[in-house]
Structure formats: structure tokens, C-alpha cells
Design brief:
Chain A is mainly beta. Chain A is 8% helix and 55% strand. Chain A starts with a helix and ends with a strand. Chain B has a single domain, classed as D-Maltodextrin-Binding Protein, domain 2, CATH 3.40.190. The chains are: A mainly beta (372), B alpha/beta (145).
Chain lengths: 372, 145
């Protein structure tokens, strides 16, 4: 299924390039995008082999167009190398209809309504202050543990109240499936069902955010996504079956007076047909940055994940081994230098503690990111 | 003397284009057929940030200016309350997050007026001195300087 999506992504990408960017044509539109080049050095010490090298990040292209007074479309592709050569992924394809000034319905494939980072930054490395995203918010094809995309329908509303702005979103779409087989060294990943729903069981996501008028730059929000994850083909050696998943998230973001303060908390609740007797798992991060002058932003971040070793969801994804809980933390300190509003260089140091799995080690990274 | 005059003329041209603070009032105008009688600063700000997209059933089509023009810098400072760089970054983030299109960029107030006069949902801002000769538009808000 993934290969099919990538083939379609490549075909649509080529079509967009051909018809969309020809100057002077009636249908010409502007293509935007993000990209980055990152150098990473990992020092594993006694825990493994040191490693360093340059990496081309995800090259992201997107087009947003108002095609009538009420209808708009957004198409996004990413060219990336998952390890076996470059592929073109169709990341988003959405068509929207403005029902009224502040109410819109969309159909297609979207960024799931989870938390803050997933909606605000996603593939845009230039948009976030740090080099990368928190590790527990990785994309599905990077062994991510949150369904960061959904395929279906999306209703969004915005309300102006005396106290501030309230945004509400509701998504209804295909339930995710876990594909691949970790036991055969195949990558297991969440498939949001872009090509269809494997079990006809749908997923639902909802979020509510509030931006108070009294505190400019503050946003607080809560979100939830619920669905049934289908395990088939004995991925990861776990018995076939279904996992009813509910992921809760809370977030707060403050962006004003040159300061950036971000925090998100996630909790996973699973009810599985093939296992029981495990607890909820959780993760959070907090990030703080401050723009000094007009270009330099020092920042710090703390990330933490606590996953129950008996939870078949994390076992299947290769995140945990049976009976061994995973407590992983990452401390990050870095500096971002903005060359202009479309390009930045970031230098980052990371200290990783992952006692029962990868051990303790450090990393350094330098990234040059850009938007166009 | 002629050289001195030439130097002052060049300095004057340079200052007009790149350095001077905006000195006159800015008038926000809409198409004559737009379904609004007046706007306040907050409503204008919401339009240029993409938060308000419709007047009833009428889609709003805001028109701004090319980057670096003095009237745009003053408008963003006094009405939207952000710098031009922050405004550009805001639209990159907004388009990526929600889709939509930013205000169209005009090269001059004459071009902006022409675009607004041709669109029932058109809105733009011009120097107050340009209002007298403008046709097909009407004032809905004024930023005094």
C-alpha cells in the first residue's frame, strides 16, 4: 500500500510540476517548500559504534490555491530517503469548502489534529527553532508512534468570544494499521490508510484550542484521537488482533516578546485483544527559546517517554521488548542563527538516556534549513 | 552648485524609497459594492492575517504591497502590530498549516486601487493623498499619522 501511495505521489508531483509552474499560464501557481541539510555526529562510547555524516532532510513541496470563492486545495509532497533510495511521498492532499466565514469542511489526507507541533511545524524544519522534532512525535515512516496523518473528512470552526479565540476541529477517517514484520527485520510502521481502510473501522480525532485576548501569543489546547489498530501478518512476532487505541494530548505554547515556550503531554491508552495487564504510557516535552537581537535564538528542550514493556502496540513497533519498560529522555541545548526569515543555521547538542535499550550517549548536530 | 544639487536630489530619491518614515495618513478602502460600511483596526488586522475571509457571502480579497515598500511597513506596524519580517514568516506558517492564500501584492497604490475597484471583495490601503483621484472605492478606516 505504501509503495502504491509513493507511486501516486511521484506521478502527481510530476504533473504538478508540469502544469503548475509554467509562467503565464492560466493555471500557474506558486510552489512553496522546505528543505534542510544536517550533519550529525553520534558518540555511543561503550554502547556502540560512533557515527557521523551529512544527511539530506526531507525536501518538502506544497501548493495552496484558492480555486473558487469557497473552495481551496492544498497539496504537499515530500522527497525523502527512508534508507533504500529516494521516494516521493504524497503527504497531504486536501480540498476544502468554506461553509461560512469561520467554518470549513475538508476532505483528503491531513495532519492529524494532535497537539501543537504536529500541526504547526510538521515537515518544515525551517519553521521549528530546533534541528528536529521530539522523538516521540516522529513521522509514521520514521517509526513514529503517533498517527500523525489521517485520511477522511475534517471539520474546523473558529469562534470569537469575549475572552479570546476558540478553535475546534473534528476529523473522521480511516483507522490506522500496523504494517511490516519486525521479526523479519522489516520496518513496522503505522499506515494511515491512504489507499483504503483495511478493516472498515474508522478513527476519530478532535481538538480544542484557546487563544486568550488577555495574553497575546498564548495558546492552550487539548486533543484526542481514537481508533482501532489492526495487526496482521504477525508483525513483530505479536499475535494477530486489534488494539483499540486512544491518545490524549495537552499543549501550551507561548510565542511573544521574543520568547518561545512550548510544552506537550501525550498519553496512550490501549485495549488489546491479544494481551492485557499493561498500563498507559506517556510522553512529554518542554522547550524554551529566546530571540536575542534579531537573529540569534538559544534554546533548550527536555523530552521524555515512559512506555510499558507489556503493551503489544509498542512491542509491535519495536519500541519495547516484552516485560522491559522503556524510559527514554533527551536533553537538548542549541543555538539558532537566522540568516533571514527564510533560512537558518542551527547547532545542537543532545544527551540521550535510554537505560534498558540504547544506553546513554551524546549527539551533536548542525543544520542549515530553508524555506522557498 | 549643480553637483551639490544633484547629490541632494539623489539623497532625496534614496530617502523616499528606502529610509523615510511614512508621513501622511493611510486610508483603508474597499470596493464600492463591498457589503461593509466601516471597519475598525481590529477588523482590518483580522483580514490581513487571514482570520476573516468573508463578509457574509462575499469573499474578501485583500491587496497589499511588494516587500519593503514604506506604506506596507507603516501599515503593518500601526494596524497589524508586527514587523514586515514577522508578517512574512506568519504567512509561511499559516499557508503551511491551514492552506489559503496571502494578500495579493501590488506594485503601487494605483495598481492596488485598480485591483480593488475590479473585485467586490477588494480591500487595500493607500496614501490619503491618493484618495481624491480614486474611483470605484470608498474609505472605511483611516490611520492617522
Amino acid at each position: 500500500m505504501k509503495k502504491t501511495i509513493r507511486r501516486w505521489g511521484g506521478a502527481v508531483f510530476a504533473l504538478v510540476l508540469c502544469i503548475g509552474t509554467a509562467p503565464g499560464t492560466a493555471n500557474a501557481f506558486t510552489m512553496h517548500g522546505f528543505g534542510d541539510v544536517t550533519y550529525t555526529a553520534t558518540e555511543m562510547g561503550d554502547n556502540g559504534r560512533d557515527n557521523n555524516g551529512f544527511n539530506l532532510g526531507q525536501l518538502d513541496f506544497y501548493v495552496a490555491e484558492q480555486i473558487s470563492d469557497r473552495v481551496d486545495v492544498l497539496v504537499e509532497f515530500v522527497i525523502e530517503n527512508p534508507g533504500d533510495g529516494f521516494v516521493v511521498d504524497l503527504e497531504r492532499l486536501q480540498v476544502g469548502y468554506a461553509v461560512a466565514n469561520q467554518h470549513k469542511i475538508r476532505a483528503g489526507r491531513f495532519h492529524n489534529l494532535m497537539g501543537y507541533w504536529n500541526l504547526a511545524f510538521h515537515h518544515g524544519a525551517q519553521l521549528h527553532t530546533s534541528v528536529g522534532r521530539p522523538f516521540f512525535l516522529e513521522f509514521e515512516d520514521d517509526n513514529g508512534i503517533i498517527p500523525v496523518h489521517m485520511v477522511g473528512l475534517w471539520w474546523s470552526s473558529r469562534f470569537e468570544t469575549g475572552a479570546g479565540k476558540v478553535d475546534f476541529g473534528l476529523m473522521f477517517g480511516n483507522g490506522a494499521a500496523l504494517t511490516g514484520d519486525a521479526a523479519n527485520n522489516d520496518t513496522v510502521e503505522l499506515d494511515p490508510g491512504s489507499g483504503g481502510d483495511s478493516d472498515n473501522k474508522k478513527a476519530v480525532s478532535a481538538n480544542l484550542t484557546f487563544r486568550p485576548s488577555a495574553v497575546r501569543g498564548l495558546e492552550v489546547g487539548a486533543s484526542v484521537t481514537a481508533g482501532t489498530i489492526v495487526l496482521s501478518g504477525t508483525p513483530g512476532g505479536i499475535a494477530n488482533g486489534e488494539i483499540d487505541q486512544t491518545v490524549y494530548a495537552l499543549h501550551a505554547a507561548y510565542l511573544a516578546h521574543n520568547a518561545e515556550l512550548l510544552g506537550e503531554f501525550y498519553a496512550w491508552n490501549h485495549d488489546a485483544t491479544m494481551a492485557s495487564g499493561f498500563d498507559d504510557s506517556s510522553a512529554f516535552y518542554v522547550q524554551a527559546g529566546y530571540l536575542v537581537g534579531e537573529r540569534v535564538t538559544p534554546y533548550v528542550r527536555y523530552e521524555s517517554l515512559s512506555a510499558d514493556g507489556m503493551d503489544p502496540y509498542f512491542q509491535t513497533m519495536g519500541m519495547t521488548m516484552a516485560g522491559t519498560d522503556r524510559d527514554k529522555t533527551i536533553v537538548i541545548a542549541g543555538v539558532r542563527y537566522d540568516l533571514n526569515y527564510r533560512s537558518a543555521v542551527k547547532v545542537e547538542y543532545r544527551s540521550i538516556e535510554d537505560d534498558n535499550y540504547d544506553g546513554s550517549f551524546t549527539e551533536g548536530a548542525v543544520q542549515w534549513s530553508f524555506a522557498f | 552648485m549643480r553637483k551639490l544639487a544633484l547629490v541632494w536630489a539623489l539623497v532625496g530619491v534614496f530617502a523616499m524609497g528606502f529610509g523615510t518614515a511614512w508621513a501622511e495618513d493611510i486610508v483603508i478602502v474597499v470596493n464600492d459594492n463591498a457589503p461593509v460600511q466601516s471597519l475598525d483596526a481590529r477588523e482590518v488586522k483580522e483580514i490581513y492575517l487571514g482570520e476573516t475571509g468573508y463578509w457574509g457571502d462575499q469573499r474578501i480579497t485583500p491587496v497589499g504591497y511588494q516587500d519593503g515598500t514604506p506604506i506596507q511597513g507603516t501599515f503593518l506596524d500601526k494596524v497589524v502590530n508586527i514587523s514586515e519580517n514577522v508578517y512574512k514568516t506568519y504567512w509561511i506558517k499559516r499557508i503551511f498549516r491551514e492552506g489559503g492564500v496571502p494578500p495579493t501584492k501590488a506594485g503601487s497604490s494605483e495598481e492596488a486601487l485598480r485591483m480593488v475597484s475590479q473585485s467586490a471583495g477588494g480591500i487595500t490601503y493607500i496614501p490619503a493623498s491618493a484618495l481624491a483621484s480614486a474611483g470605484g472605492v470608498r474609505e472605511v478606516f483611516r490611520v492617522t499619522n
